[in-house]
Design brief:
The protein is mostly beta strands. It is built from 1 helix and 6 strands, in the order E-E-H-E-E-E-E.
């Protein structure tokens, strides 16, 4: 199942998947249309796109379709600037309980953590 933004907004450079962990290195496309509105003078990766990246990687590696039902704790702690951070890392730690993924995730580059996510995704049948 292809992720909504994959291969247009971002591309996967590396991907590792173990039973309860997904690690990826992704490249952001600085020429994507979204940056014309967010923001033309200083492009920033929107928070909604960051959550969609998390969702897309979860679905792709677990071969499921999901909907986010809870964002218990979402913190955007730094701005992803595509010109400055063309490559970022994503780490998802999760456990599955029936039709629910409990997820801890982060988007980062070196020592800079851009996003911390703790929440739940429900599997859609």
């Amino acid at each position: 199942m292809p992720a909504l933004l994959q291969n247009t907004f971002y591309t996967i450079k590396e991907l590792e998947h173990t039973e309860n962990c997904i690690k990826a290195c992704i490249a952001i496309n600085p020429n994507h249309e979204v940056f014309k509105g967010h923001f033309p003078q200083m492009p920033v990766v929107p928070g909604v796109c960051q959550i969609q990246i998390i969702k897309g990687l979860l679905e792709q590696t677990t071969h499921t379709s999901t909907i986010m039902i809870a964002g218990d704790n979402i913190k955007f702690t730094g701005m992803i600037l595509p010109d400055k951070h063309p490559t970022i890392y994503v780490e998802l730690n999760f456990n599955k309980n029936e039709d629910l993924f409990n997820l801890d995730a982060k988007l980062y580059f070196e020592e800079i953590v851009f996003t911390k996510y703790k929440g739940k995704f429900k599997i859609i049948k």
